[in-house]
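Entry 14. Ran structure prediction on the chain below.
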Amino acid sequence: MRFDIKKLKFLLTLPGLDPSGSTGIDDIEGFKYLGGQTNLARVLTDLFSIVITLAFFLSFFWLVWGAFQYMSAGGNKEGLAKARARLTWAIVGLILTVAAFLVAQFTQQIILPKGGSPLI
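Output, structure tokens:
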């Protein structure tokens, strides 16, 4: 089995091709992805960014909800315990989200050269 870099590039290129840039299915170099995303690495990077943003927003919302429950518990021990648990898990979620973001940024700085593009 022979390894062909053109086939690898084709496999990493996403569907949603620009028909004006291609002359046929055999013209791998002519394919262009609409929307500026040209390979799987960039799409996964964008997806990771969306997931991190969503996780941070949900963790922050959970924290605010826990704080509101804590203030409105009014001395009820069961309500205070639920609010403390919600606050604890919201803080854990925020810490994990920030840690995942920092690890991803650190890894990107190590793997990619300055001004480089991911993969191909």
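Residues 77-111 form the longest helix (35 residues). Will compare against last week's run tomorrow.
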